[in-house]
């Protein structure tokens, strides 16, 4: 089945050009000019990746992300105007998996989408079941339970957790996590890791302010406590 | 006639020299160069001194006149009394003039008769009486007095005619007492003159400081504005003299700020507006490039030109947006600890000449900088780009500690093998849209002209410096140095604070 991309962008010409470029990659492309139509289109035919411009008329890109997250773990890429503003962090906190800054080259976009699609199919890692106290991970089925209750993670959150679980107690630097989870090289944005760790903690920690499972190692990175 | 010439011309020449010297002196003494503060000080000081001097001189003169007059009056009264007594003595025994004078007590006195001169002792003689007084009294037969030099000081000399004996009586009253009083008066007056002048000096200092303070405040504010703190304003004041300065200054600062803001907003808006068409262009060109092989040759050449310039345009707009953020003061660094050598290696690997060698020199292996990874990588990439375009294309990168023990800064040095820099270029190349060298000497292939200007801004925001010079190792080429502060060991790093 072909990969479906939903692009949400109010500029018709950009939409058309991005569509042409993405179709060249062999993907099917749906378009929506605003958040409301995007939600409806997604409900009608769920996409594999959603591309969301933050600056949308009506429902903002942030709100669209939050709305999508209520019922879907679909990978979301937000398009922001600047990389050093709060927009990036706000977009990630609203549920986005990655971001791009306008103007971006379509090649960058397809690289990001490919990384997300790869992530959407988690690697088995050779373990059928990983247990960390009350936290249990079933990599093959993409399931995580906390104290016996199943919790829902986005695909990126799940992939991040699985990477940390590869070496329980071992320290993972942000560079390594950026490379393994997002497919970025040395110049990936460390905030992607930080915000995703924060999001993950709210789901797998009893007290996210005092994490027991995903621990910060000062100056080095993160590790999953066995 | 000719012999007179030098005699006349010499003084003229000397006069000319004098005038020139005077002109030079007056040129050296330019009151505008003395400074407001010193001028106020000098005016106050001179004023208080002159006033004090006038008061002193007036007091002294008036007191002196009054004292002398008093002394004269006393002397005249006493002399008249003595003369009457001498006159009656002479009437009693006309032959004993000398005895009569000797008997009368008091100050030195003198009796001048047609046949003799008698005095009390030998202290005074007829010579001591000034001629005009002698004339008036002895010849004119009128009582008179005058102040004249006598012995070491001055004296009031009173002359009274004695008609009965055909003689004249003179009495000398010394003014020494008056002189002593005047001496002590002079001392105290000079003392008070010194005090008033000193008080004047103190007042002058505080007044001049007070007068100059608003000026130095204004100067400070102007400097702050020049340094880019455009929201600097002078404090409002109730002083009507200063209000004009304050409000004019603040109006100027406000309109300057508005204007700069407008320019910054304009540049930023233009760049933002350019991004949407740019996105469309970039995506469309990419679609066409994936079908490049289907195109006829001329279309292919045109597409290559288009693609190259769309890419260049995109980078230019990115740089413009970034630099307008600097102008708006809206840049926020995303700092994190970076292992210096590893960072530089990665930055070079991501640049347009990834194979450029990176040499580590002099113990930088463990150095860590606290920087914005992507912005500093842009600095390195821009320097490598610059070397590629302008510097012969074979740069090398060295990472080394800066001078100082222990070093507080590290240097990233990019050297190339180009033509080097010409005079005055070392600073000009960091200006926006500077075109790297004189036209024709260096081809401007794809330099948007903002790379080095942005590098300068990035480095400055990190508290570092960037400069360019010619190579110092004898090889032709330019040398760019980025100097960044290194992080102190064991600095706390918060993984979660962003």
Compact overview of the structure:
With 226 residues, chain A is α/β, with parallel strands linked by helices. Chain A is 41% helix and 21% strand. In chain A, the strands form 3 sheets. In chain A, strands 2-1-3-4-5 form a 5-stranded parallel β-sheet, with helices on both faces. In chain A, strands 6-7-8-9 form a 4-stranded antiparallel β-sheet, covered by helices on one side.
From the structure above, extract its key features.
heterodimer; A: 226 residues; alpha/beta; four-stranded antiparallel β-sheet; 8 helices; 12 strands; 41% helix; 21% strand; globular; B: 498 residues; alpha+beta; five-stranded mixed β-sheet; 12 helices; disordered C terminus
Helix content of chain B: 55-70%
Pairing-aware structural class of the strands and helices of chain A? alpha/beta
Q: Please outline the major beta sheet of chain A.
A: 5 strands, parallel
Oligomer: heterodimer
Unreliable sequence segments of chain B = 1-12, 438-445, 490-498
Structural description of this entry:
The complex is a heterodimer of chains A (226) and B (498). Chain A is of the alpha/beta class and 226 residues long. In chain A, 41% of the residues lie in helices and 21% in strands. Chain A has eight helices and twelve strands. In chain A, the strands form three sheets. Chain A has a five-stranded parallel β-sheet, with helices on both faces. In chain A, helix 4 (86-93) links the parallel strand 4 (76-80) and strand 5 (98-101). In chain A, helix 2 runs parallel beside helix 3 and helix 4 packs parallel to helix 8 (190-204). The mean pLDDT of chain A is 88. A five-stranded antiparallel β-sheet of chain B has the order 2-1-5-4-3, with helices on both faces. The longest helix of chain B is centred in the N-terminal third of the chain and has 57 residues, at 36-92. Chains A and B meet through helix 1 and helix 8 of A and helix 7, helix 8 and helix 10 of B.
């Amino acid at each position: 089945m072909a990969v479906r991309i939903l692009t949400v962008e109010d500029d018709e010409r950009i939409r058309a050009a991005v569509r042409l470029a993405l179709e060249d990659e062999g993907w099917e492309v749906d378009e929506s000019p605003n958040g409301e139509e995007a939600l409806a289109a997604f409900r009608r035919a769920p996409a594999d990746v959603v591309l969301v411009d933050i600056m949308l008329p009506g429902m903002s890109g942030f709100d669209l992300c939050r709305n999508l997250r209520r019922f879907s773990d679909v990978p979301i890429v937000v398009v922001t105007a600047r990389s050093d503003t709060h927009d990036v962090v706000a977009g990630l906190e609203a549920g986005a998996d990655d971001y791009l800054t306008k103007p971006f080259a379509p090649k960058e976009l397809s690289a990001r989408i490919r990384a997300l699609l790869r992530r959407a199919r988690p690697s088995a890692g050779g373990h059928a079941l990983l247990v960390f106290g009350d936290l249990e991970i079933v990599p093959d089925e993409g399931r995580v339970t906390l104290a016996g209750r199943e919790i829902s993670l986005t695909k990126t959150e799940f992939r991040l957790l699985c990477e940390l679980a590869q070496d329980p107690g071992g320290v993972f630097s942000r560079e390594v996590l950026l490379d393994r989870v997002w497919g970025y090289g040395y110049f990936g944005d460390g905030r992607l890791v930080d915000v995703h760790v924060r999001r993950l903690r709210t789901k797998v920690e009893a007290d996210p302010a005092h994490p027991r499972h995903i621990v910060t190692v000062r100056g080095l990175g993160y590790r999953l406590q066995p | 006639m000719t012999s007179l010439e030098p005699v006349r011309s010499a003084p003229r020449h000397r006069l000319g020299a004098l005038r020139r010297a005077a002109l030079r002196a007056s040129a050296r003494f330019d009151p505008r160069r003395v400074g407001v503060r010193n001028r106020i000080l000098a005016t106050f000081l001179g004023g208080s001194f002159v006033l004090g001097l006038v008061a002193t001189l007036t007091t002294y003169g008036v007191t002196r006149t009054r004292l002398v007059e008093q002394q004269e009056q006393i002397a005249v009264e006493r002399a008249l009394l003595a003369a009457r007594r001498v006159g009656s003595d002479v009437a009693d025994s006309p032959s004993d003039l000398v005895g009569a004078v000797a008997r009368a007590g008091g100050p030195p006195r003198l009796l001048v008769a047609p046949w003799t001169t008698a005095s009390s002792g030998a202290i005074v003689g007829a010579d001591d009486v000034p001629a005009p007084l002698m004339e008036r009294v002895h010849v004119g037969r009128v009582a008179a007095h005058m102040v004249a030099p006598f012995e070491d000081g001055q004296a009031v000399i009173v002359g009274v005619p004695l008609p009965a004996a055909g003689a004249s009586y003179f009495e000398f009253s010394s003014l020494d007492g008056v002189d002593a009083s005047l001496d002590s008066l002079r001392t105290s007056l000079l003392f008070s003159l010194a005090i008033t002048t000193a008080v004047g000096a103190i007042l002058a200092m505080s007044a001049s400081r007070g007068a100059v303070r608003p000026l130095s405040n204004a100067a400070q504010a102007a400097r702050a504005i020049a340094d880019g703190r455009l929201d600097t304003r002078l404090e409002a004041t109730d002083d009507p003299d200063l209000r004009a300065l304050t409000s004019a200054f603040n109006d100027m600062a406000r309109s300057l700020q508005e204007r700069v803001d407008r320019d910054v907003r304009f540049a930023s808006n233009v760049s933002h507006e350019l991004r949407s068409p740019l996105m469309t262009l970039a995506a469309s060109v990419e679609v066409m490039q994936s079908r490049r092989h289907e195109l006829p040759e001329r279309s292919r050449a045109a597409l290559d030109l288009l693609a190259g310039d769309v890419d260049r345009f995109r980078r230019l707009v990115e740089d413009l947006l970034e630099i307008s953020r600097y102008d708006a003061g809206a840049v926020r660094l995303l700092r994190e600890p970076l292992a210096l050598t590893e960072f530089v290696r990665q930055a070079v690997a991501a640049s347009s000449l990834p194979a450029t060698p990176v040499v580590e020199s002099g113990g930088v292996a463990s150095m860590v900088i606290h920087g914005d990874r992507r912005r500093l990588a842009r600095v390195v990439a821009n320097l490598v780009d610059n070397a590629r375009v302008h510097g012969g294309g074979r740069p090398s990168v060295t990472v080394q500690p800066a001078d100082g023990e222990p070093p507080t800064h590290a240097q990233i040095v990019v050297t190339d093998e180009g033509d080097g820099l010409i005079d005055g270029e070392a600073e000009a190349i960091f200006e926006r849209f500077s075109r790297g060298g004189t036209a024709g000497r260096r081809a401007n292939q794809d330099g948007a002209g903002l790379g080095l200007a942005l590098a300068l801004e990035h480095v400055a925001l990190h508290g570092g410096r960037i400069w360019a010079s010619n190579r110092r190792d004898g090889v032709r080429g330019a040398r760019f140095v980025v100097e960044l502060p290194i992080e102190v060991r064991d600095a706390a790093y918060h993984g979660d604070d962003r």
